[in-house]
Amino acid sequence: MPRPEIRGDDVTWTDPTCPVARTLDLVGDRWSLLIVRDAMDGARAFTDFQQRTGIARNILTDRLRRLTERGILDRQTAPSGKRQVYALTPAGRDLFTVVVALRQWGERHAFASDETHSVLLDDQGHPLAELRPTNSSGAAVDPATTSVRRER
Question: Do residues 22 and 8 make contact, with C-beta atoms less than 8 angstroms apart?
Fold first, then answer.
C-alpha cells in the first residue's frame, strides 16, 4: 500500500531520524490534535472547529493552514460555494489510532475514578477495547521488551 503524502517542507525537524519526534513536529501541538480529533468527529467548517474547541480565530486559521499544507487535512469549497470545508486526508485518518491512544491514556490517568468523561464507542455502542502494542506473534510488549534501531 502506498504511503500517504505528508509534506514537511516547512518543518525544522527536532530529531530528524526519530518517527515520534517527526510526528510531533507535524501535528504535536494541542490545537492541531484537537482539530484532528474534531474532524474525526465530523467537524468540517471553520465555525465547527471554533465552536467545539473554543480556539481563537487567528490560531485556528494558522493550524488549519498548517494541517492542510502538511497533508493532514484537505480544504475544499463547500457545495454551496460560499465557504471552505476541511476533511481528513488518508494520512489524517491514519492518526485515529494516535487519538484513541491519547484518549485511553487520559481515561486512565487524567480523571479521578468517579469523574465523568466522554467515552468513545464502537458501532454497536460498546467502549473500545484498550489499545495495547503487540509483537509480531501477538504478545503484549512494553518499553522493557522493545528496542529502537535506525533503518534506512
Answer: yes
Angle at alpha carbon of residue 81, lines to 80 and 82, rounded to 5°: 90
Contact (CB, 8 A) for 33 and 106: no
CA distance 18 to 150: 9
CA 112 to chain centre: 25
Interval 23-72: pLDDT, tens: 999 998 999 999 999 999 999 999 999 999 999 999 999 999 999 999 99
Share of the chain above pLDDT 70, in %: 97
Contact 25, 14 (CB under 8 A): yes
Place of cell 465555525: 47
